[in-house]
């Protein structure tokens, strides 16, 4: 596919998604697709770390959870107004910025294992913290809250989430094509080389971490708005795991991959939850995901989009060879 | 005074369990740069397998033995089929061991059901001694004893046998050990299996200590073990022992004084170590990326 | 020929380091590999040891092809290695460093140990000192000793004179000449004075290829060759 064709194709899909609620008005499908949009953003932010910079995080849920809790607590305390939402936005951005900066500065100058361990531990701490600080979070039971009237409509919220995803997609696309993004990819390919070329690798890694953290926080905000309910599960390892699956199955190092991965995983969640009524083994769907995940990492490490791209490249080569070029 | 002594025993018992988990983790990392995120999964498997056999046969020792055997088998399987195929690729390695962690703890639920199981204390270890007005719970002393034995044995093996010297040398310079004619692959397999067996041993010991076992406890304790490995220094058994005691004791004391902060205090210690001496208190290995 | 290498090519990661190394090492002599920094001398030794396996070409040791063997199999066949950084285990004592290298403790091994300690008596005085606290020269001796206690017929030594005081260089060179009675040596050396003193034949490496070879005597006279590849005259 040529460059222009790619954009026209993308625009057509976006257009289709924009009019979808008026063509096919099913409540459960709309909710599912809205969730896909939200998780696609979360997964794209994760891919900026894993796929574009080569940083492994096992605690990306911490930013997601911070965004979700700021929204929930803000709207419950200050009433369901736009100002309250704006406050929540400010708090999310500031907290995610600070936290991602601190965690990054602490561990990104060390071997990659440290960042993975530290993020896992931090997220565990936040989860326990959210359980213990009951006066603020109502603990494991969680609480419901109201959101601004305008966003109550499912269709409008759907459009809002879609727009949110497209904006983040375009932003990240710009970012990874920028000189900054090129340096990140150089770090992923060969960190020593990037270092010897004179780039301050740690500095770039920390910034990638901060951007990914803030975007994850934003997706957590929209997630909380979509549920109008929150409990400690937003900090659970399951969330991080879901986002790992989405990114890896979809294709690391591509922006389309996480979106496709989010669609697959969210749909699979939905279907498997229904199947749980048929047989109890389906309640243990995490095993299935876990096994698929292991197999993908072992045999299919580029994911769907990565493998597709590679295949396309080979096909093009074949065509060229046939033409005798 | 009595309360502090009790807290100390508690803290040391917890510390010993964490130490048993951390030994394998730190040596596996030191030797091959493999950070095994599935280590917590082994902990859970040890607990369920051991307690299950204990409940069936009534013999706690048999349960302990069974847990160790399960650990050796799982360790062999993981090293051979999960870790070996991705040698040298850090990213794949880290990602895959987390997947294994997940599958291991979910399989527990398939076999033993999703609910927690109760784990009674074996009769001969139940009850307590009262010495000078201080109540000492027998089982906790038993854990400390087992932990000490493992530590002393590990220390002896690492300092007085050629195999132990090879392991320590391998942590410092893997390539040189190979160039001296050692099949590092086999050494690593051995260390991995022993590390796995110690993790399952910690799991089954944990059962009667907490009274209940559940599938999620693997990750909880793995996080403690990670903290210990960072504080003590990757690759150092001595460091792990020392850091386990710190983490166990500070957890116990703070839990008594300021219960809400017990996890946070360990994180705090870890952060201080990372800032001040990122290679860990006893680290002998480079940690820069 | 004890060791014969033909058209060996080695990649490290994506980098093509060796483009075709061809050399043969006769038994009982000291063969010196010369060349500028980055010419591929260290990688050649590492490829022989199996630490940086060669992707193309053959390495024959005593007539057997060893290029596909893992390092421990190569050591078992009688090749020892002293790396550029000496590879001393800093946390282990001198005794323990030697112990790691001694697989068996039969009489032959004890004899080798005896012989080695006579060659480097300093090691006996520092027997219980940790490797990290040894001086540069002592580390070099320990590293060579650690190779000698193994049952060797070929020893690969990477720049033993690097960073040593002149008096230590002389000591090491004398030790090498003494070792020649027992084992064949392949020596990588930048210090031309030392190389020409202990060496019997030479190979010059440039850009991952062997470009010149011959008896050491000839190189001493050939100013042109020396200037072209070694930057000395």
Rg over alpha carbons of chain C:
17 Å
Strand order, largest beta sheet of chain C: 6-7-8-3-9-10
The biggest sheet of chain A amounts to:
2 strands, antiparallel
**How would you spell out the order of helices and strands of chain C?**
EEEHEEHEHHHHEHEHEEHH
How many helical elements of chain C? 10
The CATH topology label of chain A is: ABC transporter involved in vitamin B12 uptake, BtuC
Secondary-structure class of chain A = mainly alpha
| Distance from first to last alpha carbon of chain C | 31 Å
How do the helices and strands follow one another from N- to C-terminus of chain A?
HHHHHHEHHHHHEHHHH
Overall shape of chain C = globular
- Total strand count of chain C, please? 10
Number of separate helices of chain A: 15
Whole-number count of domains of chain A: 1
Q: Classify the secondary structure makeup of chain C into a structural class.
A: alpha/beta
Question: Over the alpha carbons, how many angstroms does the gyration radius of chain A reach?
Answer: 20 Å
Give the uncertain stretches of chain A in residue-range form.
Answer: none
Fraction of residues in helix of chain C: 25-40%
Helix content of chain A: over 70%
Give an account of the 3D structure.
The complex is a heterotrimer of chains A (325), B (289) and C (233). Chain A has helices at 3-23, 27-50, 61-78, 82-107, 112-132, 134-137, 149-152, 154-177, 179-189, 191-196, 201-227, 237-250, 256-275, 285-299, 303-322; strands at 143-144, 229-230. By secondary structure, chain A is mainly α. Chain A has a two-stranded antiparallel ribbon with strand order 1-2. The radius of gyration of chain A is 20 Å and the shape is globular. Chain B is 75% helix and 4% strand. Chain B has helices spanning 2-32, 39-57, 60-83, 90-112, 138-160, 162-172, 174-179, 184-210, 217-232, 237-257, 262-276, and strands at 117-118, 128-131, 134-137, 212-213. Chain B has a single domain, classed as ABC transporter involved in vitamin B12 uptake, BtuC, CATH 1.10.3470. The mean pLDDT of chain B is 90. The N and C termini of chain B lie far apart (47 Å). Chain C is built from 10 helices and 10 strands. Chain C has helices spanning 41-49, 71-76, 94-101, 107-119, 122-125, 136-148, 166-179, 192-198, 216-221, 223-230; strands spanning 3-12, 15-25, 30-34, 56-61, 64-65, 79-82, 154-158, 184-188, 201-206, 209-215. In chain C, the strands form 2 sheets. A 6-stranded mixed sheet of chain C has the order 6-7-8-3-9-10, with helices on both faces. In chain C, helix 3 packs parallel to helix 6. Chain C is globular. Chain A binds chain B through residues 50, 54, 56, 58, 106-114, 116-118, 120-122, 124-125, 128-129, 132-133, 191, 201, 237, 241, 244, 248, 281, 283-284, 286-287, 289-291, 293-294, 297-298, 301, and chain B through 29, 33, 35, 37, 82, 85-86, 90-92, 94-96, 98-100, 102-103, 106-107, 109-110, 114, 219-220, 223, 226-227, 229-230, 260, 263-264, 267, 270-271, 274-275, 278, 287-289.
